[in-house]
Amino acid sequence: MQQFFDIEQAYVAGPSFLTIGNFDGLHRGHQLLLRRLQELAAEASPGGGGPPPYTGIVTFDPHPLTVLRPGQFQPLLTTPQERLDLAAALGIDLGVIQPFTPALANMTPKEFLLLLKDHLGMAGLAVGPGFSPCRNRTGDIATLRRLGEELDYTLHVVEPLVGAGEVQVRSSVIREALLQGDVAGAAELLGRHYTVSGEVVVGDGRGRQLGIPTANLQTPPAKLLPANGVYATLARTHSSAGAELYASVTNLGVRPTVDGHERRLETHLLDFPRAGHSSDLYGQPLDILFVAHLRAEQRFPGLAALVAQIQRDIAEARLLLQPMLSPQRA
């Protein structure tokens, strides 16, 4: 994927078929839109062996709400780079992370669309029915269709995806599920396990003292973390040898049994082969894929009771995760 970090610094001769939005989570509804975008581009491919149109996604950073409503924090399901990486994995050709500024918010629809025409060669635009960008939400569907005739692009409106139980697949619904600890429900709407990535940092070593060493993850400040509790997870490590996936148990919370106060994400990798365990991962990236909620965070009467419960958590997680991994890894 070709990636750009400002439309005005990009240049693609085109033609391109684009979609625009926050795309937070890149969930199943967004994926449907991207598949439709690819179909539209293929249908518009010229005869006689000419190059097919590019497909592209334009997303924003920071989230527009943080600019339009100062002081309102909007936790993210995906960082902007994660959105481009997910779109690239689906076969999208171009990705733009557009800085969202007051100046951009005050553009007229025509000014914004001319940027897409001039810098990305936009020939087609695919959006949802509620899409309405630009100053005072003036870029509604009727306006975009009229401007399409003036600026020579085609507009395609893609209806939203409705999941099981007639629930519309929306980022806000996924956020609420995660804040309730329902990582399985979130995965159903995302089309994949919810993932939190970060760098492994030095902790207080308490897990190693208990005989259950953990890797402590430093996560992006704006990234949404699920509700406090204990989860069956998959941990993906990265090294020069490539990515490896391990069954793991992850704790999110303040660790009340040891009078903790700082919220932490720490994970115990099952069957990790290196003797040093988490110390071998210091400074390395680690992805945590949330599979199932095991239990709420709780205070135990002592460390012995805590260790006994963690061992039960490990056994339960191993049973849940075994079908997802190779026999030697589960």
Weakly predicted, low-confidence segments: none
Global geometry? elongated
Number of helices: 10
Structural class: alpha/beta
Report strand order across the widest sheet.
1-4-3-2-5-6
Radius of gyration: 23 Å
Measured as a percent range, the helix fraction is 25-40%
N-to-C SSE series? EEHEHHEHHEHEHHEHEEEEEH
Major sheet summary line = 6 strands, parallel
Number of distinct beta strands: 12
> Strand fraction band?
25-35%
* C-alpha termini separation: 34 Å
Mean pLDDT: 87
Provide the descriptors you would attach to this structure in a database record.
elongated; 330 residues; 6-stranded parallel beta sheet; alpha/beta; 6-stranded antiparallel beta barrel
How is this fold's topology laid out?
Elements: E1 2-4, E2 16-20, H1 28-43, E3 54-61, H2 64-68, H3 80-89, E4 94-99, H4 102-105, H5 109-120, E5 122-127, H6 141-151, E6 154-157, H7 171-179, H8 183-190, E7 194-201, H9 206-209, E8 215-218, E9 229-239, E10 242-253, E11 264-269, E12 285-295, H10 303-321
Parallel strand pairs: 1-4, 2-3, 2-5, 3-4, 5-6
Antiparallel strand pairs: 7-8, 7-12, 8-11, 9-10, 9-12, 10-11
Helix pairs in contact: 5-6, 7-8
